[in-house]
Amino acid sequence: MSLYSKPKIKLTSIWDLESEEEDTEERIDDTPNVQWSEFPREEWEQIKAKTRQGCICDDCERAIDPTIRPDFSALQKIFSSDKLLRHAAIFAGTRKINEKIVDHFHTTWRHPMHMGVPNVEFVSFMMSDTSVCQRFDDYMSELLLILDDPNVKPLWHGTKVNCKFADKPCDPTSLDSCAGCNILSKGFDISKSGSANPFKRFGTGIYFAPNSSKAHSYATPRGGAEDLYTILFCFVALGRCHTTIDDIPSLAEPPYPCHSVHGRIGHRLNYEEYVIYRPDAVVPFAAVTYRMTKW
Predict the structure, then answer these.
(1) Which of 52, 98, 211, 265 has the fewest CB atoms inside 10 Å of its own CB, making it the most exposed?
(2) Could you tell me if residue 234 is inside a domain?
(3) In this structure, is residue 225 part of a structural domain?
(4) Three-state secondary structure call for residue 229
């Protein structure tokens, strides 16, 4: 199952969205009965504090509760992880989630524009296997036993997408041949590390970038369109990061006692990288398809 969303008008907040959609209450009632009250109170308070920064107004409370956000009603059917959806709501704030992702795409594009100007065509979500969300929840619980903050970041991943449709999300029939579809539906596979780029700067891991333009450098034209690309927007639990400016190609796991590697800008890197070595530390959340326009 996939969800394709292309807003007809520009909305600036979830309150605008709520006023535009008269059937909001009906659609929310149709969503699965998720027991959000069972979410650990202490963890919930920590998550809230990171967004509202001490504010306890109704708007802040509503913004981080996926069960009452109209833009999350469909996502509750796609993603079974309560922890993931709460972090996604924190990321979105009072913006509609797909608009926030588009805005994040443009604001994190850092490479020179001589390579072209990106224009987002659409944001798509694909139903992933329930095990992808379950293993992410389990890993988050594991991190919270030893850390106050699991250090979840929204990051980009560039990969090969073979789908040939320019007006809809990834084609489910191409699961066997399309890396993007495989990742969105089945999660990341550590055994595929280096399949697109044999040089592993920080060893055998799954690589992400805070900059959409860096992820673009690992993407390939989508289907038969030379100027159409897709990169993946993910939520990654980094835990405790080992920060370095040096290459460590021999790594198969992060240096003890860390959970990930952060490649900092230095004499070898022009743009940051993050690497995880466990596929349960990440959930591919959305695919952003965009067209590169030459100057």
Answers:
(1) 265
(2) yes
(3) yes
(4) strand
Concatenate the DSSP letters of all residues of 210-227 into one string.
SSHHHHHTT----TT-TT
Residue 140 and residue 242 in one domain: yes
Q: Which of 69, 99, 129 is the last residue of a domain?
A: 99
- The reply to whether omega before 118 is within 30° of 0 (cis) is no
CA 264 – CA 259 distance, rounded (Å): 16
Domain count, the chain: 2
What's the rounded Cα separation, in Å, for the pair 283 and 99?
Answer: 19
Q: What is the pLDDT of residues 16-73, one digit of tens each?
A: 434 334 343 333 334 333 344 455 666 666 666 655 544 667 777 777 788 888 889 8
Best CA proximity match to 38, nearest among 77, 70, 86: 86
Q: Are residues 143 and 57 in the same domain?
A: no
Indicate if 59 and 136 belong to the same structural domain.
no
Q: Give the dihedral sign, CA 104/107/110/113.
A: positive
Alpha-helical regions (H) of 31-152: 41-52, 58-63, 75-78, 82-92, 97-107, 130-144
265, burial (CB in 10 Å: exposed 0-12, middle 13-18, buried 19+): exposed
pLDDT digits (tens, 9 = 90+) for 86-108: 999 989 988 899 999 999 999 99
Show the domain range for 245: 116-293
CA distance to 1, 16, 32, 144, 162, per residue, from 155 (Å)? 23, 27, 28, 21, 22
| CA dihedral for 115, 107, 287, 16, sign (positive or negative) | negative
| CB-based contact 205:261 (threshold 8 Å) | yes
Instruction: Name which of 211, 217, 228 is nearest 271 in CA terms.
Output: 211
Query: Which residue bears the tokens 């306890």?
Result: 56
- Element containing residue 6 per DSSP (H, E): none
pTM: 0.80
* 104 falls within a domain: no
Q: Are residues 58 and 127 in the same domain?
A: no
